[in-house]
Here is the input.
Amino acid sequence: MAKVKDLLCIPVLKDIKILAGKSGLDRPVEHVTVMEVPDIKRWLKGNDFLITSFYSVRKSEEDQRALIRDLADTCCCIAVKTGQYVKTVAESVKRAADEVGLPVLEIPG
Here is the structure.
């Protein structure tokens, strides 16, 4: 089974940056899911590589931190496309990801 760090070696993903949660790069990847709804957890299957623009939590760093904590037991990583809805991933969100060992990746615009 592929791990998060394995996927980051694929040429098409070479521009993705690891922002936080490096201790979780050995997490297995079983599914790829796109999130733009606030209640995403009920749609996850486990070990999801979650792709998001943070649209549903774009207005609140607190909501972004809560999302990270909530998904740490279900997702293998969260890849955030920055630019349109969030310019950057906030330092407090990165710290939350480090605390729970959930890799947060940045998909550049």
